[in-house]
């Protein structure tokens, strides 16, 4: 598909500077307060995922957009960089469910998609107790406990974030990339990239890479998964250099999420290509997502321009089959200097029926295709799914088929 190459919006320097303050290395993320208090790193990642899953379930009940839920997950991950999940002497522990509810409350204000406090508290109680139909009364102690925790933890969350609420959702950046490369109508690619960003919310990817890198990684992983190639620009630059993202960072982000997918049991024993690790050095599997101009010109000569992946292979296979068919036709034996295939074709053209006979033959072929007439000429009654017992009808059908065969011969 030829990209439209519309004007790509420049990154916001203020957002990039604010976001860079929350980017950490893997070694730094192994020294979070929870891990320093004795919580294993695997358990901390699991608790973070449970908190984000709580956000998603509450968001579904409140019918919140995905951008708001992604913002809440980023707030949750940033909070536990500064605070611990483990209780210590003189310091309370912050439960991931309680902070997840507070993150939703603050994210709805940031994205200007607010919900009533009662609706939020009722949804949190239902999700926490795993009872989506639970009747929650405003006079219930559970209701007031959740409400008080949300209002109290909001100040703690804002203090931990240093009131830094400038966020750039990766979804918006991904939409800009798809429009720029002319892939906005590629539904499968768009949905795969969107799902990649959704899954990244369950991990600490937002603490390791910027939102623009995450969006580029989603596009890269989706292009590999969907066997889609993105065309280089007129100067021969690959698409990741056009948007100003380092390909090594893209591969690192993909491998970080692939490590999460490896621990997920796949249904029906199916394997997914996104699980494959991408070599971070060299070109490696990068060529799967890149279409060079020289390859495009070669595809135009072979008639496979605009086709990628299985479509291009199918077109090439079809071209080879047509070549073999022409070769077989050329090598057919001849009778009196005329190819048998050509003679049969000419005989069929000369003996083709016309008028009433032609319409009668078409009607007969339609009835055979619909199962009204069997191979042996028997006429079927669909109401009983049995051949009609009339010998006269069987004989008549056989005569008609015989006449038709003589005409077509």
Structure description:
This protein is mainly α. The chain is built from 18 helices and 6 strands. The protein has helices at residues 13-20, 26-29, 33-36, 41-62, 66-82, 96-110, 117-128, 141-160, 170-180, 187-200, 211-225, 239-242, 247-261, 293-302, 310-330, 340-350, 356-369, 391-408; strands at 230-231, 290-291, 334-335, 338-339, 380-381, 386-387. Helix 5 (66-82) crosses helix 6 (96-110). It is globular, with a radius of gyration of 33 Å. It starts with 12 loop residues before the first helix and ends with a helix.
Unreliable runs, pLDDT <50, ≥5 residues?
A: 296-354, 373-398, 400-409
Class per helix and strand makeup: mainly alpha
What is the number of strand segments? 6
Biggest sheet strand line-up: 1-2
| Large-scale geometry | globular
Briefly characterize the structure.
The chain contains 18 helices and 6 strands. It is an all-alpha fold.
Provide keyphrases for this structure.
mainly alpha; two-stranded antiparallel ribbon; two-stranded parallel sheet; 3% strand; single chain; disordered C terminus; 409 residues
């Amino acid at each position: 598909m030829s990209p439209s190459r519309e004007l790509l919006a420049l990154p916001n320097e203020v957002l990039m500077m604010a976001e860079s303050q929350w980017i950490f290395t893997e070694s730094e993320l192994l020294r979070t307060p929870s891990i320093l208090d004795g919580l294993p790193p695997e358990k901390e990642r699991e608790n973070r995922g449970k908190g984000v899953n709580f956000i998603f379930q509450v968001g579904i009940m409140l019918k919140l957009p995905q951008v708001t839920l992604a913002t809440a997950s980023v707030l949750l991950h940033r909070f536990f960089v500064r605070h611990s999940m483990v209780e210590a002497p003189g310091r309370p522990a912050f439960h991931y469910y309680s902070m997840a509810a507070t993150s939703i409350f603050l994210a709805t204000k940031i994205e200007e998609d607010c919900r009533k406090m009662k609706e939020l508290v009722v949804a949190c109680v239902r999700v926490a107790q795993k009872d989506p139909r639970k009747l929650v009364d405003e006079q219930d102690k559970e209701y007031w406990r959740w409400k008080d925790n949300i209002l109290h933890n909001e100040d703690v969350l804002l203090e931990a974030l240093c009131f830094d609420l400038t966020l750039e959702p990766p979804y918006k950046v991904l939409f800009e990339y798809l429009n720029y490369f002319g892939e906005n109508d590629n539904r499968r690619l768009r949905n795969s990239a969107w799902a990649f960003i959704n899954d990244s919310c369950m991990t600490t990817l937002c603490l390791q890479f910027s939102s623009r890198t995450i969006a580029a990684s989603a596009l890269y992983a989706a292009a590999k998964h969907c066997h889609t190639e993105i065309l280089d620009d007129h100067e021969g630059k690959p698409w990741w250099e056009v948007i100003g993202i380092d390909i090594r960072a893209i591969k690192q982000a993909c491998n970080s999420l692939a490590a999460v997918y490896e621990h997920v049991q796949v249904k029906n024993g199916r394997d997914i290509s996104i699980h494959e690790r991408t070599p971070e050095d060299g070109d490696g599997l990068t060529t799967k997502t890149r279409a060079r101009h020289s390859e495009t010109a070669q595809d135009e000569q072979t008639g496979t321009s605009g086709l990628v992946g299985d479509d291009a292979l199918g077109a090439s296979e079809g071209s080879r089959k047509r070549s073999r068919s022409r070769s077989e036709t050329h090598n057919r034996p001849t009778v009196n200097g005329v190819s048998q295939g050509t003679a049969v074709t000419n005989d069929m053209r000369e003996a083709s029926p016309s008028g009433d006979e032609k319409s009668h033959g078409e009607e007969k072929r339609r009835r055979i295709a619909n199962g009204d007439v069997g191979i042996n000429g028997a006429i079927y009654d669909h109401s009983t799914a049995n051949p009609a017992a009339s010998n006269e009808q069987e004989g008549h059908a056989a005569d008609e088929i015989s006449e038709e065969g003589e005409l077509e011969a």
